[in-house]
Hints:
The protein has 17 helices and 27 strands. The protein is α/β, with parallel strands linked by helices. Helix 2 crosses helix 3, helix 7 packs across helix 8 and helix 9 packs across helix 10. A hairpin with a 2-residue loop joins strand 25 and strand 26. It is about 35% helix and about 25% strand. Among the domains are: about 210 residues, Rossmann fold (3-Layer(aba) Sandwich); about 80 residues, Luciferase, Domain 3 (Luciferase, domain 3), CATH 2.30.38; about 90 residues, GMP Synthetase, Chain A, domain 3 (2-Layer Sandwich). The strands form seven sheets. The chain has a five-stranded mixed beta sheet, with helices on both faces. About 45% of the residues are buried.
Amino acid sequence: MPQDTTPQSFIAHIQQTLVKNWNENAFTDYKGETLRFCDVARRIAKLHIGMQTAGLQRGDKVAICGRNSANWAVAFFATLSYGCIVVPIQCEFQPEQIHNIVNHSESRFLFVGDGVARDIDFEAMPHLGGIAHLPDLTIRNTRSEKLTYVHQHLNQLFGERYPARFGREDVVYRPEVSPEELAIINYTSGTTGFSKGVMIPYRALWSNLMFTLQSFGEHVHPGDAILSTLPMAHTYGMTCEMIFGFLQGCHIHFLVRQPAPSLVMEAAARIRPAILIAVPLVIEKIVRKHVYQRLDSHRARYLLQLPLIKNRVKTRIVQWIRDQFGGNIYQIMTGGAPMNQEIEQFLMSIGFPITSGYGTTETSPMITYSDWTDHVLGSCGTVVPNMELALFTRHGQIVHAGERGCENFEGEVISRGLNVMLGYYKNPDATREVIDEDGWFHTGDLGSFSPDGHLFIKGRIKNMLLGANGQNIYPEEIEDKLNSMPVVGESLVLQDGEHLIALVYPDPDDVQQIPLSQEEVAMVMEQNRTQLNAQLPSYCRLKEIRLHDSEFAKTAKKSIKRYLYKA
């Protein structure tokens, strides 16, 4: 574990891990290329030459948009170690949303993956000096003669800078960053008018790194394998898989495509990870499809009822599940959405190492976590180091986690400490809405505590929905698009199990003027649904539009009373 104990040392950790683990494997694209730490250092050095030649300055923004990959991580660490600010963008966003984020952040450069590169429009992003292709890190578009020169002469420039050879002694990153300096702008949304760029400072990166090193470092050692299943454009995957794994000297394997449960199991069995971090849906599907089927026999159920041998049966079941994930796993950690209680209870009843964490993009991300040996059913864990945790009750009282009698209260989950963002980029009004005068970040989640401070999330106070794979879904964005479509008077997007549905009150004037029968209105709505889904990321798409026969009930401010329709 690195010995530095100050937030200023975060970039030094990048330098130290490269030098210390020089000849060890660092990144692998699953069934593809492997980079050693020395290879990563060399690619970072080449990117630094390109950034310098192109005139990038400290504090400039560099956006990254693509599926998880070794070069995504290289671009990320190269940007930070050069002194620029990283702007991660979800690759599922539509081109217009990507353009919005690049323009709103005033990014000077953009790294893109294959799928993104085909769809975006360079001319729609006037601030960009150039675009690089993530798979090979080559320049694809440029407005700069200097970037064109770099593209054509990079190997020559690298050779001139390092004429003998490139070695450990050449890995020297000079940016002196302060704890409050901006490191990352992570957008929670991609649509103009809804964009919130979360400003994450270096103190938050350092604090989350210290948490992961203290919590996982005892069980996940340098050289161990880590399977990256979470999108690195989200702070959860970025922090707990990529940053921790790289700076701990681990070998990170990137799936490079959607983490379907079957692919996760295949990859885990092959690479034998020391820890697995995933959204609950992946684990739930694996348990239902593989574990439950194996136990669904009269003999298995009978053996689990026998007091003298049921513990041995449970031990064998746990070992069999471990073997399905490669046999080397310390624990599985979920987050981003609540775990199915039935499956969580089953795994805990047999002694399988399952646990959960909780956080937000605004806390970059961690607020609570417990090791599986301290995990409580339905809980998200206890408060992490460098953070305070409390409930803000409806009476305005602040109840701290673990204080006497805290289990008797319910309220909005609030937190403050080193992990909390600087605010929303270019949006001080939105910042003031969530961070109060005393520095408490208001999560918008309703929660409660156990006597010892374990946090239990009761539900969402805000309107934000969580997709099945943990993505943030903002219904207002979908409604905004839907309300502009034919025959739609007003709409309400809700979650129905794993799917999204929309309630629509048809515009009565349109219906009467055309006129339209009930069946024809339904046909129009189905056409609207198809067209709307084509504009949205896959996790935001509607499964169904249901007709509503009257206007929605509203507040005095004419906002729909959403809580009336959630059932």
